[in-house]
Structures are given as structure tokens and as C-alpha cells.
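#structure-requests
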Amino acid sequence: MTVHAIPQFIERQFLLIAVVASALALAWPQSFIWVKPHIPLGLGLIMFGMGLTLEFEDFRNILRKWPLVGLGMVLQYVIMPGLAVGVSFILGLPPEAVVGMVVVGACPGGTASNVIAYLARANVPLSVTMTLASTCLAPVLTPAIIYLILERQVEIEFWSMVRSVFWIVIFPLVDGLVLRRLFRARLEPVLRYFPSFSIIVIVLLIACIMGLNRETLLAFPVLVLLGVALHNGFGLAAGYGVARLFRCSRQDARTLAIEVGMQNSGLGVALAVKHFGVATALPGALFSLWHNLSGVALARRWNRRNG
């Protein structure tokens, strides 16, 4: 295999690579949990690379799609909490798992959704805009939804979330956009390696989550895992289906599916532990793993259709 063939191999086999890495993480968790403190840096580098592939005009076009962003926010903060309650009721989940499901359902979209949107050839500027919008609304809407359903008050540190999104998403993305504007021709040879680099970072993220939650996963909480998978799957389907119902393009529908179905599960785990107890964090931990795996699988399928 030549050096130039390696990126193509990674792009074609990224689901297989993710599964193998996950299995290795379960067997030897120490091989991957070192990644945890470097996850923000990895995601930031991916956003920088995305900026190198985009133009400022791409984001200006999003201004004409503000109703679509609004639709995404409604789906994010209505469908996902509603699905959490519905799935928990149907499966008869224990009270701690119900609390965890609701907390995750009330959270905003996660930054990993932007990476999955890129790999799925969805509308990346729309994905980034929706992630930013849902994150900015989270300090108000997430506590309100949790109080409405669970009758418990939680607090979210607004500026902490803003700083996190700025350094992981906005700053590296804008840097990439500026460099592309200044050095377009010189950057083209480098960009061919960017998708494979993004895949490797996502694989390391998934394997790290596997390693950190090894004991939980080996205990195999089947019912909660099923609940998380259904929650995520119905969210993806609802995002795509409603977008198509409103006559959105397939690319925009894919974006809504990813944004609605992928949650900021890290925030969900933190809120669950802080306000409800460690036992309620299980759905968030499982969601963190599952939505990345399902996102990778979906991106691979959509990517093949485009190819």
C-alpha cells in the first residue's frame, strides 16, 4: 500500500477501524484513556481543517436558511426530551435511568456532530450554526425542560459553555477560513489528508469512551443500552423525516438528522452526577458512545451514496 492510498483506505474502512479500536479499548483500556484530556484539542484541529475546506460565503448562505435553524432548535428541545420520556415509559426503565435519559434529551447538540456532518457530506456551515444556536439556548432551555419533566432545578454555567464552544468550534474554524482565503492554492495538497485525519480522531474518541466506561459496558445493561439506541435512532429519523416533510434538500435533511440525534452527552453526564447522583449518569455515558458509533455508520452509508 502506497502512502497516498492510506487516506483512501481509512475513509473506506472507517466503520471497521472504529469497531476494532473499540474492541481493543475493552481489552486494554489504558491504551486509549490517555486520549481524554486531548479530546478538545482533537476536535479543535478537525474544526480548523473544516475551515480550510469552507468559504465565508458558505456561512452567509445560512442567513437565508434561518427558518431551518429555528426548526432544528424546536426539534432539538422538543423531540429529544419527548423521546426520552416515551422510550423510558415503553421500556419500563428504572427511575435512575429515566432521569439520565431525560437529562441527555434536554441537552444541546454536541460538537462531534459537526465532524459527523462533514464525513456524511451534509451541510457543515448549517451544522456548526445549529450547534452554536442550541448551545447558546441551553443555559435557559435545558434547566427549564428538566424542571418541567423531573421537577428538579439544575444550573448550567453559561460562560463556561460559551468558552468551550469558542475554543473548540469558532476559533479554529475561523482560523481555517482565514488561511484558506490567504493561501488557497498552497493548501490544496494538504486537504486530501483531512478526512482521514478526522476519522482517526473520531475513532480515538470512541475508543477512549469505551475504555473509560469499560466496567459499565462489560456489565451489559441491555435495557438501558436499548433505550439509548432507540432514543438516538428516533432522533436521527425525526430530524431527517421532518426536514424532508418541510421540503428541505437531502443534504440539509442529513444535517438536521445529525444535529437532532447527537447530543452533548458529556454535559448530560456532568449534570446527572452533580444534581441526581452517579447512577443516573449511565444513559449519558452510553449515549456518548452510541451516538458516535451510529453517526459514523450513518456517515459511511451517506458517503457511499454520494460516491
